[in-house]
Amino acid sequence: MLMKFAGPYSHFRVGCSILLADGTVVQGANVENAAYPVGTCAERVAMGTAVVQGAKKGDIRAIAVATDISPPASPCGMCRQFIREFCELNMPILMYDNEARSTVMTLGQLLPMSFGPEKLKTTDEVEHGLSQ
Amino acid sequence: MLMKFAGPYSHFRVGCSILLADGTVVQGANVENAAYPVGTCAERVAMGTAVVQGAKKGDIRAIAVATDISPPASPCGMCRQFIREFCELNMPILMYDNEARSTVMTLGQLLPMSFGPEKLKTTDEVEHGLSQ
Amino acid sequence: MLMKFAGPYSHFRVGCSILLADGTVVQGANVENAAYPVGTCAERVAMGTAVVQGAKKGDIRAIAVATDISPPASPCGMCRQFIREFCELNMPILMYDNEARSTVMTLGQLLPMSFGPEKLKTTDEVEHGLSQ
Amino acid sequence: MLMKFAGPYSHFRVGCSILLADGTVVQGANVENAAYPVGTCAERVAMGTAVVQGAKKGDIRAIAVATDISPPASPCGMCRQFIREFCELNMPILMYDNEARSTVMTLGQLLPMSFGPEKLKTTDEVEHGLSQ
Ligand SMILES: [Zn+2]
Ligand SMILES: [Zn+2]
Ligand SMILES: [Zn+2]
Ligand SMILES: [Zn+2]
User: Which residue among C69, C110, C115 sits closest to B73, beta carbon to beta carbon?
Assistant: First the structure.
């Protein structure tokens, strides 16, 4: 697949590939908007596509992010949080620079002491006024 | 394709289908996050997938949004803005309720007097201090 | 108050003033981020400040948005949705251009057939499986 | 000031206080939206208010976040990124639980190898086709 970029505002091209357990690769790119906060990053486009196609926690083996700068760019904090919902903390995130050199960190290293689903009250707790 | 939903927080299932000029349909669903503002809506997942696959302004013929409530839900303002970047103002947005009854509005009707790319200064204007 | 702008990426200066029923004016400006989607708009900064200070639905009389272009810019769709949560549909939104000429629209005109709180299931409905 | 919360969807109350170099404290709380991704967190409300009032990099001495759970919640990834734009990496972030016990981490510890402004091309580089 020849992936298309839609980043006319930042002039920053980012590509993301998600490797699933069955060998499938799902791709994303940044999709920007004239109202900057409304745009989205490559990582969230790729992950949204993967989740809608059925990927669940445990199905995602690795995420790779590529940009045309060096040293390589890392996912922004918003993407680290988005990924956190669907990936194990020990999942590797590979970051590639403009010469295809890579750095690797786990999700847990990039988002230490993360906020996640287990922090929220369940519907049942809300209903019955239980405190966590 | 059996589409997967990831909306455990709102308990609100939203599906979106984008019809392209070549007859292809691209699908999306809401993908939520424990940090609520980090999640994304069905319309943006579908549109992000379509844009990365190459859809450009003029390629998108219609967008359909389905929820299990009645009357049907409309796209949130953030999604209207996201769609605005890639679609003509006269593109129809169909909204389906839990009985598959639909309401239709154009993008221009749902986002009147919209903010778009033509409002931003070009790089050249920024460089040379031209006013718009 | 001399308001500060933090919009180094879009080079687009936006100011927002919210008029409360008691005559108070709360101000905001766009606060951008190197990761573009993480930044926020003037309208949401102003409204966030107002809500934290205690403004509730019914307390907000008008919202004014000023930019240095002409014709004036309108709030992006994300901001229309954010405002929708706390304002009546007949509240006026004034948009000022670089010569202080203004256009006015109501919130309901800028976000027709809007998505709002009444569309979501209550905790009680989720708990007991009631459909809306 | 008696701070108001607007978190009817997550039922999760978060308060944030930003300590400035001149001793001023700026406060925020989560401001949620029926369209979940459109809402915002306590940290971003407080920081947006502070920036509009004139706080710049170097002016912010500490950020405290309080929730009514234990162990204390940390800022979401999106807020870590938002804060990153305006704070030094060695700035302390204090996280308080429901008994006012706190944990402290620096911004750099919470967002290692962060994405920031220095990664983006300047307007001049874009204009003249320079690579980074
Ligand atoms: Zn990102
Ligand atoms: Zn939406
Ligand atoms: Zn906006
Ligand atoms: Zn947050």
Answer: C115
Whether the pLDDT of residue A38 is over 50: the answer is yes
> Residue D40 pairs with which residues in a beta bridge?
D31
Ligand 2 centroid from CA A128, angstroms: 30
| Residue C105 per-residue DSSP state | E
Q: How far is the CA of C60 from the centre of ligand 3 (A)?
A: 18
| Band of residue D124 on the pLDDT scale cut at 50, 70, 90 | low
The DSSP symbol for A36 reads G
ipTM of the complex: 0.93
Measure the CA–CA gap between B120 and B117, rounded to whole angstroms.
6
Residues of A with CB under 8 A from a CB of D: 10-12, 68-70, 73-82, 84, 98, 103, 105, 109-115, 119-121, 126, 131-132
Q: Which of A5, A14, A36 to mutate to test the interface with C (most CBs of C within 10 A)?
A: A36
Q: Is C16 annotated as a binding residue?
A: no
Record the tokens describing residue C15, joined without a space: 């100011």
Residue C110 has pLDDT above 50, yes or no: yes
- Give bridge partners of residue B76 from the DSSP assignment: none
- If residue B110 lies in a helix (H) or strand (E), which one and from where to where? helix B107-110
Q: Quick one: pLDDT at residue C132?
A: 34
Q: For chain C, what are the domain ranges?
A: 14-128
Place of tokens 């993008």: B107
A53-93 per-position pLDDT tens digit: 999 988 999 999 999 999 999 999 999 999 999 999 999 99
Which pLDDT belongs to residue D70? 92
B48-81: string of b/e by CB count within 10 Å (b at 16+)? bbbbbbebeeebbeebbbbbbbeebbbbbbbbbb
The DSSP bridge partners found for residue A17 are A27, A64
The C-alpha atoms of residue B61 and residue B44 are separated, in whole angstroms, by 16
Q: Annotation-wise, does B16 bind a ligand? A: no
Q: What is the largest CA-CA distance in chain A?
A: 56
Q: Measured between alpha carbons, how far is D118 from A93 in angstroms, rounded to an integer?
A: 21
- Interface contact A2-B34, CB threshold 8 A: no
Percentage of residues of chain D with pLDDT beyond 70: 89
CB A107 within 8 Å of CB A61: no
- Structure confidence at residue A43 (pLDDT): 98
Q: What top-level class would CATH report for the domain C14-128?
A: alpha beta
How far apart CA A93 and CA C126 sit, in angstroms, is 36
Q: H or E segment at D81?
A: helix D77-84
Read off the pLDDT of each residue in B89-116 and give the average, rounded to a whole number: 96
Strand pairing class (D92-96; A14-20): unpaired
